[in-house]
Amino acid sequence: MSNVLVCIKRVPASSGQVLLTDDVMSVDARHVGHTLSPHEECAIEAAVQIAGDTGGAATVLTLGPDSAVDQLREALAVGASSAVHLHTPETGEPGSADEYGPADVAEAIASVVRRRAEGGEPFDLVVLGNDAADTGDFQVGVRLAHLLGRPVVTGARSLSVAGDVVTVIGDGPGGTEEFELSLPCVVTVKEGDISPRYPSIPGRLKAKKAPVEAIDAPPAAQGTARRRLVLPPEQPSTVQVLGTDKDATSAAAAVVDVLRTIGVVAR
Known about the structure:
Helices cover 28% and strands 24% of the residues. It is of the alpha/beta class.
C-alpha cells in the first residue's frame, strides 16, 4: 500500500499575453483566472493512479490564500482522497505566499510529512510538478528530498510502484533514462506519458463537499531572493500571401519558389 502526497500550486491562467506586476517580481493575475500547471495535473494523475493500484490514498497539498482551496478541489474531483491547505494571508498582505521561496515551501511541506509520520500515517511517496508555471522555480522537490533525507528523481515522464520500489522514466542527455528508487522517496513530474483525466460531474459534486484540513503555514524564513522576472522578447511574425483561388497557377509557382528558397526542393 502506497500513500502518496501530491503538492500543487495555484498559478495564473495565461492564454494570451503575460503581464508582470509593477515591481516586476511576479505575474500580474488581477485580470485572469487561476489554474494548475500542466506538470502538476500530470503529478495528480500519477498520484491517483499509484494510490489506486496499490490500495493506498492520494492526498493533495497546496500553500496559499483561501482561494487556493479551489485548486485543491480540482484535484479532489479527479480522484484525490483528501486535501491539506497550508494557509497564508491574501496576496499583497504581509506573510502572503508571494514571500515564500523554494526553501520556505519545501520546509512547509516537510513539516506536514514529518507530522503525518509521527502520527503513524506516513507518506511513502511525495510527487510534485517539475517546476512552477508562473515563476519557473524548480527547486522545491530537490530541497524537500534533502530535508526529508529521501532519494529524488526530477523530470519524470512516467512512474509506477511495485512493492517498495518506484520505477521512474524520464528524458536524459542521451535519451530515455530509467531509475529505480526505494520508498520512501520524492519524484517531480513533467508532461509526457501521463494523461490527466477530466473530472466527472459526480466527482465535482463530491469535491465541493469534501473536508479540507487547514494548517497555518510556517512563516517564510528565507524568502524568494528574486530580483525580478524577465519576459522573453516577442518574436515578430510576417505572413506572405502567395496567391488566391482565382490565380492558382501563379500561387503554385510561388509555393515552389518558397520551397526552393528554404531548401526543401532542389533548385
